[in-house]
Design brief:
Structural class: alpha+beta
Strand content: 35-45%
Radius of gyration: 15 Å
Oligomer: single chain
Number of strands: 12
Number of helices: 3
Shape: globular
Helix content: 10-25%
Largest sheet: 10 strands, antiparallel
């Protein structure tokens, strides 16, 4: 199986159901609770290039991600290690637009939501969570829970590296900021 076909399969597994609003998305593991993207003004502007490893069903894949955030927008571009553009998702604080999405069922807001859940200020994340979801934080990370079920678990390895685990589909995403960023 092609490495990039594997990425498309992961995207399919992440798919929940169609969100009611484009900027809100159901988190994997529930179809009844969603996270709504928060305004980009919640964080200081930044631009970062990251190395992303995806692990699912014993297989691994890697991507390079360019993430740019300013007061007006959040832009996520994922490339193969050889520089081929796979995904381009843009959020202008009103709606999400996706280009070159590997699988039509993947809600584009999910990619941005996972990054916000992991790295946005806790108060901002809580505003985006539906009332049935809750955020738990510790020094090592944070978890998004629906009742007693963990939907998203974030583990901070260092200032430049963290992991996002989605127990329902069995997916682990490790993100490391590339040097010079």
């Amino acid at each position: 199986m092609s490495k990039y076909l594997f990425s498309a399969l992961i995207a399919t597994l992440l798919c929940a159901c169609s969100p009611e609003q484009q900027e809100c998305v159901s988190l994997p593991g529930t179809t009844s609770a969603s996270y709504c993207l928060q305004p980009t003004q919640a964080v200081a502007p930044f631009s970062v290039q990251q190395f992303v490893e995806l692990q699912f069903a014993g297989k691994k894949d890697a991507l390079v991600v360019d993430l740019d955030v300013d007061a007006a927008r959040m832009q996520f571009v994922a490339l193969t290690p050889f520089g081929q553009k796979l995904i381009h998702v843009d959020y202008d604080n009103r709606q999400v637009n996706a280009y070159l999405l590997p699988h039509q069922k993947l809600p584009p807001a999910l990619l941005l939501s996972l990054l916000q859940l992991a790295s946005w200020p806790a108060d901002s994340v809580r505003v985006g969570l539906e009332v049935s979801l809750r955020l738990e934080e510790s020094g090592e990370g944070r978890r998004i829970l629906h009742g007693d079920d963990v939907l998203v678990e974030v583990t901070y390895h260092s200032r430049e590296a963290f992991s996002i685990t989605l127990p329902a589909p069995g997916l682990e995403i490790t993100i490391r900021t590339l040097e010079g960023q």
